Amino acid sequence: MSDNNSVAFVRTETLPQLPPPASQAGAVKWARENLFSSIPSGILTLVSLYVIYLLVAFVGPWIANGVWNTDSLAECREVLDGTTGACFSVISERWNQLLFGFSYPVEHYWRPGLAFILLFIAAAPVMFFDLPRKLLIFTGLYPFIAFWLIWGGTIFTPLFALAGIMVGYLVYSRYVKDSFAMGFFGGVIAAFIAWYIGGFIVGAIAPEEPFLEAVQSRNMGGFMLNMILGVTCVSLSVPLGIVLALGRQSDMPIIKWICVCFIEFIRGVPLITLLFVANVVLAYFLPPGTTFDLILRVIIMITMFSSAYIAEVIRGGLAALPKGQYEAADSLGLDYAQAMRLIILPQALKISIPGIVNIAVGLFKDTTLVSVISMFDVVGMIRGPILSSTDWNGVYWELFMAASVLFFVVCYGISQYSQWLERRLATDHR
After folding, report:
1. Fold of 220-387+400-430
2. Nearest alpha carbon to residue 236 among 302, 167, 312, 160
3. d(CA 180, CA 176)
4. Max CA distance (Å), the chain
5. What are phi and psi of 385, to 5 degrees?
6. Which of 1, 230, 274, 412 is the right S-S partner for 364, CB 3.0 to 4.6 Å?
7. 153 by DSSP, 3-state: which?
8. Alpha helix locations (H) across 342-396?
9. Is residue 127 pLDDT above 90, yes or no?
């Protein structure tokens, strides 16, 4: 006779999953892994929190008690009446000078503002690959549209500049099949000839009253000037850096040594020296009576400076590629231009993204050096017209904080985009 109590119990369903321990989930887990993973890490975390507390305890009331609606520093101090507080009134009163300088016509602020908005539309098809390629047509036209909007004057100037670019491209596409060097230098020479002829034509047919009022370069200033220099120089230095990197690896001795001498000389000279050359020395090499726009001279010098550094970054990307990639291009029967455009450069540029972005961010911040050659960018406006006025003499932290915020927003945006691009291209999996 069997005993029913000896039959083992068999569960037919699984037990519900228990929650993880409190120390292994949520904010507690994150803090243990990132802030208190070890004794030295915990000590550094506590010290950092104490430093942050001191900064907040000092800066917090200073910002919270800030004054925004007075007409001078003396009135700010009367309103504060001895309490700690910032005088943000200088920003609310002089914001237009911080952004556009003190000489750009107030009634035409919409022109650089529109150019700034169009910049995002023009950069979108280059930055994001999923957009229709037809938008690249507007990207190519944007530099000429932005020039006309900001500087104004006759519409024929940007039109003939565009015509010169098209003539140079046609010459390049005609001769690049025979020789890359012949096509490149032929296109450059053809473009300069077209611009030279176009200059005479513009002078002959330019109307006396253009559709947009002309604004002289000496009237450019504020953060607008930093944006003009930064965007233009970065856009020009990347293709020029690619050409210099390819020229340094060329088998033609003359081309190679020209690129090597240019890169090494520019990298050995401080940027501020080149800016003084653009401001003073360059005029001595021009014919008497010739006017060469200062902004154009500065753009040339900054572009030369940054292109030399970008060339070395791209050369590192080219050197990182295995030799088999070059052999694969040769086995497919591709010529030099096709191999570089379709196989070599896409991989080298993908590797070089962090270095190029690092140079671009540094270059954008270095545009503030133009203040030493009497160009009133945002730092030049702070050090010059604003602080020299009797109403705001003595205001420093508020103005430089505003400038820092402007530069931080742009540089942080560039950095975040580069990180997104690296993830999109999977640069760690070549």
Report:
1. MetI-like fold (1.10.3720)
2. 302
3. 5
4. 126
5. -60, -35
6. 230
7. strand
8. 345-351, 353-366, 378-381, 387-388
9. no
Q: How far apart are CA 91 and CA 399, in angstroms?
A: 7
* Residue type present at position 69: N
Q: How far apart are the first and last CA of the chain?
A: 74
Closest-CA residue to 406 (of 56, 63, 64, 116): 116
**pLDDT at 326 (0 to 100):** 81
Helices (H), 81-179: 89-100, 110-127, 136-151, 156-175
Q: Is the model's pLDDT at 4 over the cut of 60?
A: no
Cβ contacts of 318 within 8 Å, gap of 6 or more: 245, 246, 249, 344, 348
Is 338:180 a contact under the CB 8 Å cutoff? Answer: no
Q: What is the pLDDT of residue 309?
A: 93
pLDDT of residue 332: 82
223 pLDDT tier (thresholds 50, 70, 90): very high
Angle (CA) 401 403 409, round 5° = 100
Closest among 216, 150, 218, 236 to 380, alpha carbons compared: 218
CATH 1.10.3720.10 in the chain, residue ranges: 220-387+400-430
pTM > 0.85: no
Q: At what angle do helices 294-320 and 253-267 cross, to 10 degrees?
A: 110
pLDDT band for 44, please (50, 70, 90 cuts). Answer: very high
Output the CA angle 292-381-416, nearest 5 degrees. 90
Residue-wise pLDDT for 298-317, tens only, equals 998 999 999 999 999 999 88
Q: Distance of CA 287 to CAs 120, 274, 283, 284, 301, Å? A: 39, 21, 8, 8, 20
What residues are paired with 87 via a beta bridge? 67
Using the structure block, give the residue that is written with the tokens 């507390």. 53
Mean pLDDT, rounded, of the chain: 85
Gyration radius of the chain's alpha carbons:
29
Q: In Å, how far from its chain's centre is CA 169?
A: 26
pLDDT in tens, 396-423: 888 999 999 999 999 999 999 888 888 8
DSSP state of 393: T
> Quick one: what percent of the chain has pLDDT higher than 90?
28
Residue 362 structure tokens: 């540094």
- Residue 215, classed as helix, strand or coil, is coil
* Residues 377-396 pLDDT 10s: 999 899 888 888 888 888 88
Per-residue confidence (pLDDT) for residue 13, from 0 to 100: 79
Q: Which residues, 6 or more positions from 354, have their beta carbon under 8 angstroms from its beta carbon?
A: 418, 422
